[in-house]
Each structure stands twice: as C-alpha cells, then as structure tokens.
Amino acid sequence: MRLLYIVPKIKITGGVARVISIKANYFVEHFGYEIHVLSQNEENEMPFYDFDSEIVFHNMILKGNIFKFFNSFQKQINQKITEIKPDVILVADNGLKAFVFPFIAKTKIPIVFECHGSKFIEEQHQKTNFISKSIQKLKYRFKDFGAQKFTKIVALSEQNLKEWNVKNSVVIPNPSWIKSKKDSDLKSKKIIAIARNSYEKGLDRLLLIWKEIGEKYPDWTLDIYTDDVDSLEKEALKLEIESGINYLHFVKNIQEKYLKASICAMTSRTEGFPMVLLEAMASGLPCIAYDCPTGPRGIITNAENGFLIPDYNIKMYVEKLSFLIENEEVRLKFGLDAKETSKQYSVKKVMEQWKEFLENL
User: Fold this and answer.
1) Which phi and psi angles does 258 have, rounded to 5°?
2) Which residues of 94-120 are buried (b: 16+ CB within 10 A; e: fewer)?
3) Using 50, 70 and 90 to split pLDDT, how confident is the model at 77?
4) 346-358, pLDDT tens digit by residue?
C-alpha cells in the first residue's frame, strides 16, 4: 500500500512530527507500505526525528498573499497526487487550509483527515466582542463542513470526536512508543514539562503556577523543554521568577529526561491526545494537567494515575501539585497506574488498528 501524508511541517520538533515518524517507520518496517510525506517550505531542512531511509520526503513552496498561497497549494497538491499515485491520502494539519483540501484535490482516492488537535485550537488569545465571536463560530462551522467532506476523519479519542459534527469517523489513539525497561524512581525533586512555547501549549500558565510552587518548595526544580527558550525566560523574568527553572531546548533522547523527573506537568489550553503524557506515563511518571479540550481527560484518570485540574483553576493546580510534591507514596502509586495506562496504547496495538482501517478503505 502506498500512503501520502500531507502536513505543514515534518522536519521540526513537536508531537505531530513525532507521532508521524513512529507510524511511518512502522508502516515501512512491519507492513511493507510505501510512505511519502509532503510538507511545505522545508526543502533544505533535516528531520529532527529519525525516519526510515525508504520514506520519501516531498516539499512544496508556499508563499505570497492568501490568493497566491492557495492557488499554489492547489496546484502543487494535485501535481504530487498525480506523481505519487497513492492508495490513501492522510491530511495531518490543524490549520484552516486542511479543511479546504477535499474541495481542491482532484482525485477519487480516499482522503483521511488525521485530527491531531482540538477543533477549538487557537494560536492566540481570542477577543470576546461580538465580531470576534461571530468569526470564531463561522470558522468552527467551516471546519465541521470541511471535515464532513473527507472520506474519513480519524479522531484520537472519544472526547476528541465529540467536538466534531461528523459521522464519517473512527477513533484511533496515538501510540506510546517508549519501551524503557527502567522507570523513574520518583525520588528526584524535579518536575518536567515539554511543549512548544505557543499560546495553545500554555507555558505562560505554567510560569504562573511555578511562581507559587517555586517559592513554596525552593529545593524543587522545573525542567522545561521547549523551542523558544529565550522568550520563555524573558517572560519568567517579567513575573520575577529568577530561579528554580531550567530552560532547555528539545532533545532527541527525551526518554532519558523523563527518568530523571518525578512529576510531569502540562498546562495546555487545547490538546489532541498528547504524546507527552503517554511518554511520561510509559516512564512511570504521575501527570498533572488542566482539563482542556480534549486530550488530557482521555489519558489521565483523576486521582488514579495523576490529577486532572478544572481548566484555568490555578489555585487547585497549585494545591494538587503541592500534594504530589509532598507525598512520595502517592507519586509511586500514581506512577505504577500511569505505567499500566500507557500499555493500553502500545505501538503494536495502535498500528494494527491503523492497518485494519487503511486496508478496509
């Protein structure tokens, strides 16, 4: 089977690139599929994650105003479809242009929308006036309309699926790829957070939490792995946070970093089915996250393998994080349950679901 993935970026760091690398490699190595990946404006970049040498990368150049951009997008998309002749096309893009795809792709090949985020994902704070709210509603309606035109939409959880007004759907979660035989002993006084420094990932919310936690527990540290270290550090200094945080760039050997931590913290405003939580749990870490739309609630069972905090309730987040810091026995219990949770999403189980889904198309 020949698959064509269409993504905005594939050679960068981040959850979508990570999960596509895992799945694409498995498709090639275990099922013998031929995999092509088409991304935009990455011609001279090298992939951050490891990809099988048989995977073929394609690049389209998209520039100019909105009219030139979409004209070029349509032209290059159809050129690549004609050139590659895939059996199935998978679109993994949270941007609005993804929902235009069924209307511009001149093909009868099955087109799958692979949903990696909440329908309500936003790149910046949204105004609450009438015009802004009206534009938001139109945008969400357009997303639903476009999603209905795909052959299938693959959501990452039942909660994720409920956001979409569609019937052409199936649920297949992200895989938990870490296979470490070792788990964290949960004794180090270290909390780990991994996220892009973007609005939807909410690291600004984590800084507000740490302002209280850092003062309360000065012997604990927070390691933040991100893509924009300088901006985040400047933001922390504005909040007068001068110690207790290590600002670190994304690393390939992230599984080693989980083993040196005792708690994983997430403060996203929206999520899909976060790889960070799966990775942390596979390493035996208890997790704490805001109950944002829609990913964490599909993975964290509150007070069993971590804590799920009502969104924006910073007071409760600080209370529960303090509780985990002060109670090693609870951390150990949550860590064991977290490890068991991660086993439900083994790569083998998830990829067998993908094989059955694709071959039934």
Assistant:
1) -60, -40
2) beebbbbbbeebeeebebbbbbbbbbb
3) very high
4) 999 999 999 999 9
pLDDT at 132: 84
Half-sphere exposure of residue 179: CA atoms within 13 angstroms, side-chain side? 5
Express each pLDDT in 130-165 by its tens digit.
888 888 899 999 999 999 999 999 999 999 999 998
**Residue type (1 letter), 140:** Y
- In terms of Cβ atoms closer than 10 Å to its own Cβ (0-12, 13-18, 19+), residue 257 is middle
Angle of helix 328-343 versus helix 275-282 axis, rounded to 10: 110
Question: What pairing do the DSSP bridges indicate for beta strands 34-40 and 56-60?
Answer: parallel
- Four-residue CA torsion sign, 106, 112, 116, 119: positive
Residues 6+ apart with CB under 8 A from 276: 15, 194, 195, 264, 266
* Predicted pLDDT at 161: 93
Tokens of 229: 């270290």
The b/e string for 304-338 (b: 16+ C-beta within 10 A; e otherwise) is: ebbbbbebeeeeebbebbeebbeeeeebbebbebb
The percent helix, strand, coil of the chain (3-state, each to 5) is 40, 15, 40
What 3-state class would DSSP assign to 11? coil
* Rounded to 5°, angle at Cα 47 from 45 and 52: 135
Query: Hey, how many other C-beta atoms are within 10 angstroms of the C-beta on 68?
Result: 11
The predicted model scores a pTM of: 0.92
pLDDT tens column, 30-43: 999 999 999 999 98
Residue 47: closest CA among 28, 29, 21: 21
What is d(CA 191, CA 335) in angstroms, rounded to the nearest whole number? 14
| Helices assigned H by DSSP within 110-173 | 130-148, 158-162
CA-wise closest residue to 227 among 195, 259, 254: 195
